[in-house]
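Both lines are retained for reference:
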Amino acid sequence: MTTRLLVTGFGPFPRMPRNPTSRLAVAVARSPRWKHLRIRAAALVLPTTYAAIETILLPRLREERPDAVLMLGVAGRARWIRVETCGRNQAASLTPDAAGGSAQGAPGTMPARVRRTRARPVAALATLRRKGWRVRLSSHAGRYICNASYYAALQEDCPILFIHVPRPGRGLRDRGMTRVRDWHDLLAEALAEIALELARQGRQQRALQRRTPAHRSAV
């Protein structure tokens, strides 16, 4: 049984002309480990616009129905990685996106106030710490497109986790590590470990869903 994994990142925006999540999403999806584990991984780099949530992200999720999704965003002022536990029904309507659009009509207007991830954020936290990263759990993914996209994606019935990364060069406990290996490579390796855990959780969930109807009919 092949497990479908989707890794998302974002393109540039005014304060971030080179968004590291574009490169990270592609690197995680191209990890050579997937072919040996029967995991089909794909990367999706989204424009940093509210419109992209409805026109690109949600159609991709509904058409391909991945078993697990790892979402990446950049927090330009952060010095730590943040593992987001939920998406919130709020957006900064006065903050334009990269195309000058606003949050009006975006998934931030949906009724549920908070949507919590079905994934295991504490496990992701432990993985990142073990790999040498400064990291913390967060219950607020901001008021911009990262939060709006996470909130919208969490409608789907699969493990989904959003991770905010800092600017390149930040977040490592031992900065000397970047003298030996590239920051992006080090972080992509850690994120691939998290993606693998998500894929395993998604595979287990799908197997359980397949068994449940047969069990009910037998009863």
User: Anything to note?
Assistant: The radius of gyration is 17 Å. Confidence is low (pLDDT under 50) at residues 105-110, 215-219.
